[in-house]
Write a structure and sequence with these properties.
The complex is a heterodimer. In chain A, strand 4 and strand 5 form a beta hairpin. Helices cover 34% and strands 32% of the residues of chain A. The longest helix of chain A is centred in the first third of the chain and has 20 residues. Chain A has four helices and five strands, in the order βααββααββ. Chain A has a five-stranded antiparallel beta sheet with strand order 1-2-3-5-4, covered by helices on one side. In chain A, helix 2 packs antiparallel against helix 4. By secondary structure, chain B is an alpha/beta fold. Classes of the chains: A alpha+beta, B alpha/beta. At the A-B interface, helix 1, helix 2 and helix 4 of A face helix 2 and helix 3 of B.
């Protein structure tokens, strides 16, 4: 889908409180962009899971939030999480429901993938991980 | 009343009402769990209502802390009912594949009290 970028915000993920800060920013953007309540909850929750992953597994990194719009006029929010941590050896396994290397449910990655429309993960052991998650609003906005 | 951050734990007879408000960070969630379990022991609570109607987000971490808290309370002999989950949060958790098993739920505080059967019709204590 062709898309156009409007605004971009990059936030650091360095301490636990950044999980709250990133998801707050996501909520604020999604509300302003006209996402419905269910989509806002999905975006905010995916942001929470992916930020926590970046903090816990990736040893910190950044979250970049971009307002994009599809060629049919629907607004979208693209969230990119990047770290230079140890990386993920087996991506397929990491995306399985219930897989967890730490004290968690293991639904962070697989669950986030289900909450958005487009999900891409790239990881190189020893170099880091990059997750891109995009969700489109159901309807075009006026702008 | 105990106030561990954004969580107020109220005691009504032997029932505890824990209203979780605003933003629940990971460490606040864990501290809340410990505070609630200690309060159950201290006041000899027979039932707990976990009111999450003010929570705008429940990710899998917070969901697990809530479910674990209910199971821990059950081991202590106290029944816990999770009340007030917003529709969009229920939808999000199910979409993620998390069914919050192991903890009873009710629509709101009133329904939760009925589940607990805390007060009989005359309003007396059981």
């Amino acid at each position: 889908m062709a898309e156009r970028a409007h605004g971009r915000h990059t936030l650091p993920i360095a301490v636990e409180d950044d999980v709250v800060i990133v998801r707050r920013k996501v909520r604020q953007l999604a509300e302003r962009m006209g996402f419905d309540l269910f989509s806002i909850a999905a975006l905010t929750t995916a942001a929470s899971e992916l930020t926590r992953n970046t903090w816990q597994h990736g040893l910190g990194g950044t979250a970049t939030l971009e307002e994009v719009s599809a060629d049919d006029g629907r607004p979208g929010l693209r969230m990119t999480f990047e770290d230079h941590g140890p990386g993920i050896g087996d991506l397929e396994q990491a995306l399985e429901s219930g897989f967890s290397t730490r004290r968690s449910l293991g639904l962070g990655l697989s669950g986030s993938q289900r909450l958005v429309d487009h999900f891409r993960i790239e990881s190189t052991p020893g170099e880091g991980t990059r997750v891109v998650a995009t969700k489109w609003a159901r309807y075009p906005t006026g702008r | 009343m105990i106030r561990p951050g954004p969580v107020a734990i109220l005691r009504i007879r032997r029932t505890l009402l824990a209203a979780i408000q605003g933003e629940l960070s990971d460490h606040v969630a864990e501290r809340f769990q410990q505070d609630l379990l200690r309060t159950i022991e201290r006041v000899d609570a027979t039932g707990v209502l976990l009111d999450i109607s003010s929570l705008e987000i429940v990710d899998t971490y917070v969901a697990r802390v809530l479910a674990d808290t209910g199971q821990m309370a059950r081991l202590m002999g106290t029944r816990t009912v999770l009340v007030g989950m917003r529709p969009e949060i229920a939808a999000t958790l199910v979409t993620m594949g998390y069914l919050l098993e192991g903890v009873e739920t009710a629509l709101d505080v009133d329904a939760g009290l009925e589940v607990l059967g805390t007060f009989d019709e005359a309003g007396g204590r059981r």
